[in-house]
Amino acid sequence: MAETLAERKARLADKLKNEPSQTPIQEVNPVAEVDKPATKSAINKDDELVQLNVKVPRNMSKAIKQIALDDEVDIREVVWEAISQYLKKRKPL
């Protein structure tokens, strides 16, 4: 006679309970810290941060991401520096 769904579930549950797991345990090792190049932040650490959402052309977004990757900094630092330079050119902060 064919096994019903409930019987199959019960059999599989018993198998999970009774048989040891065959999944290897992954060893977790701490990641070695990499010295990041010193960057001069475009903001004062005491400044309150607010969110500013803007849409930029795709090629500009890719360029910003690539610069951040090359310089090993956050994307926001690249954007902060660019905005800071623009503002200094227009009017001193």
Distance between the termini: 83 Å
Q: Find the count of extended strands (DSSP E, 2+ residues).
A: 0
Shape: elongated
- Major sheet summary line: none
- Along the chain, the helix and strand elements come as HHH
Notes on the protein architecture:
- The chain starts with a helix and ends with a helix.
- The longest helix is centred in the last third of the chain and has 16 residues, at 75-90.
- Helix 2 crosses helix 3.
- It has helices spanning 5-18, 58-71, 75-90.
- It is an all-alpha fold and 93 residues long.
- The chain is built from three helices and no strands.
- The relative contact order is 0.10.
- It has a domain at 50-93.
- The chain is elongated, with a radius of gyration of 27 Å.
How are the SSEs placed, and which strands pair?
Elements: H1 5-18, H2 58-71, H3 75-90
Helix pairs in contact: 2-3
List keywords for this structure.
about 90 residues, mainly alpha, 3 helices, about 45% helix, about 0% strand
Produce a short descriptive summary.
One of its GO terms (biological process) is regulation of DNA-templated transcription. With 93 residues, the protein is mainly alpha-helical.
